[in-house]
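Design job #97: recover the sequence.
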């Protein structure tokens, strides 16, 4: 049996810091073979840089996925091609730089990883996530022992539909983007672990990782404001998936780990 950990959207410095504080311990105590993390909000809550990607990988993350904020940081399009363990969403235009998927090894098995963007209520133009996932899964399955598909989407219906389409094809289908963990983690009938959204790795005394007051005031009066990354009540959120020798999911378990300050009650 192999075990993978998928971590939800890493938000800003607080999200990066908790990886430094707790990830090595979690890997050892929970006997994790591979760690995958979405890090599209790692740079001040919007996008990522090459420097921050390498910092996150140095904490013990084996592969980084991205989402609709992939190009938010200036110059990242020039950097992404040199980052061998980072992939951008697979259903962006084919001319976009960066890898559409990754194959990472650990615990004696090879895991294929890719992300597709949903299209409902999303601003980034992307191809059909369902067709893209179907095509890439067909290409990758002969090369890997297990396959993890991330759907970075706004609507629960789009994520759930992806889970059902990939049941029996992917080992796991995990949803990200909305930063709020859902309570529907389960193994689908044909052996695919699924959850609509794994939540975020970042500050939960917030509105989706940002300071509460400016977001609230924007809702009240509609005036533009800077949404600063919050700092308090930081948690690492994700899911642990156990995989059998056939590449099917045996179980999926939600993971919620506080930072050291929160755990100490400070």
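Job complete. Output follows.
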């Amino acid at each position: 049996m192999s075990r993978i950990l998928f971590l939800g959207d890493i938000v800003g410095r607080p999200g990066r810091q908790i990886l430094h504080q707790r990830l090595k311990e979690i890997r050892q105590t929970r006997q994790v073979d591979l760690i995958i993390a979405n890090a599209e909000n790692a740079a001040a809550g919007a996008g990522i840089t090459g420097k921050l990607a390498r910092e996150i990988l140095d904490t013990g993350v084996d592969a980084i996925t991205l989402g609709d904020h992939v190009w938010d940081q200036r110059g990242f399009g020039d950097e992404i091609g040199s980052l061998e363990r980072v992939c951008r969403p697979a259903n962006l235009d084919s001319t976009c730089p960066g890898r559409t998927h990754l194959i990472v090894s650990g615990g004696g098995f090879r895991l294929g990883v890719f992300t597709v963007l949903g299209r409902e209520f999303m601003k980034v133009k992307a191809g059909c996530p369902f067709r893209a996932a179907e095509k890439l899964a067909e290409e990758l399955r002969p090369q890997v022992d297990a396959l993890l598909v991330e759907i970075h989407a706004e609507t629960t219906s789009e994520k759930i539909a992806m889970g059902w389409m990939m049941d029996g094809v992917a080992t796991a289908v995990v949803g990200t983007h909305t930063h709020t963990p859902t309570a529907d983690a389960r193994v689908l009938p044909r052996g695919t672990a699924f959850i609509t959204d794994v939540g975020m790795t970042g500050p939960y005394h917030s509105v989706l990782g940002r300071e509460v007051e400016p977001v609230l005031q924007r809702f009240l009066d509609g005036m533009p404001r800077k949404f600063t990354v919050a700092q308090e009540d930081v948690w690492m959120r994700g899911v642990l998936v156990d995989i059998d020798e056939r590449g099917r999911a045996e179980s999926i378990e939600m993971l919620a780990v506080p930072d050291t300050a929160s755990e100490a009650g400070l």
